[in-house]
Amino acid sequence: MRHQPNRQLLSDPARNLSRLTRSFLQRDTVTVARGLLGQLLVRQLEDGTRLSGLIVETEAYLGPDDRAAHTYNHHRSPRNESMWQQAATAYVYFTYGMHHCINIVTRDEHSPQAVLIRALQPVENGEAMRLARPKAKRDTDLCSGPAKLCEALAIDRGLDGIDLTSSEALWLERARQRAMPASRIAVGPRIGIANSGDWADKPLRFAVRNNPHVSKPWVFTKT
Question: 3-class secondary structure for the chain?
Fold first, then answer.
């Protein structure tokens, strides 16, 4: 069954959706993190099954100066090589020996920054997502976290380094013509980076305010 996009998040749900362009993603990383809210992440499986969800939560990682970023202090390795590529590259990493997380690279090859996709609101083929995540007790549990959404959409290291503007397996669609207004965006510190000094408290986490699909726990303090 194909689910229709949530009309409260889409500016014009009746029109065909186009892919987000490289120029959309090759901007200031915080701007991109905000701009991705309400846009559609699409995963097409090898059998043609299409899975998708509206992005409802993101985090910005600001490169070599950011103590929470994988490229802090200009660190470069085979694991994070995709962060050193052009904007619109997918950076998928494996963590804790069991989870995958997906980031969208911003800026350019000389400024390794990215946006972590933290949560989605399922749109298409929720049934397939439930099969992939049998532990999810509610639809709001399917993609309410970076590891959960990767499991639900079958995103793994095999998709690391792909170009999201041309890939037939994973891409972003413009579900909103205009950026979400600031009044609808909650802002707060990022999750799981307590050892990042002053960067731990910087307001670089963004979510659709009051959306039930965002990850937990979440304490947002400003707009």
Answer: CECCCCCCCCCCCCCCCCECCHHHHCCCHHHHHHHCCCCEEEEECCCCCEEEEEEEEEEEECHHHCCCCCCHHHCCCCCCHHHHCCCCEEEEEEECCCEEEEEEEECCCCCCEEEEEEEEEEEECHHHHHHHCCCCCCHHHCCCCHHHHHHHCCCCHHHCCCECCCCCCEEEECCCCCCCCHHHEEEECCCCCCCCHHHHHCCCEEEECCCCCCCCCCCCCEC
* Per-residue pLDDT reduced to its tens digit, 27-37: 999 999 999 99
Q: Which domains does the chain have, with CATH numbers?
A: 22-208 (3.10.300.10)
Q: How far apart are CA 13 and CA 42, in angstroms?
A: 16
Instruction: Provide the mean pLDDT of the chain.
Output: 91
Q: Which of 7-11, 26-30, 117-121, 161-165 has the lowest mean pLDDT?
A: 7-11
Q: Which pLDDT does position 219 carry in this prediction? A: 63
For the beta carbon of residue 120, count every other beta carbon within 10 angstroms: 27
Residue whose token pair is 């065909």: 16
Question: In Å, how far are 17, 139, 140, 175 from 7, measured between CA atoms?
Answer: 14, 17, 17, 10
pLDDT digits (tens, 9 = 90+) for 144-200: 999 999 999 999 999 999 999 999 999 999 999 999 999 999 999 999 999 999 999
90 closest CA partner among 77, 67, 106, 111: 106
Q: Does residue 11 register a pLDDT over 70?
A: no
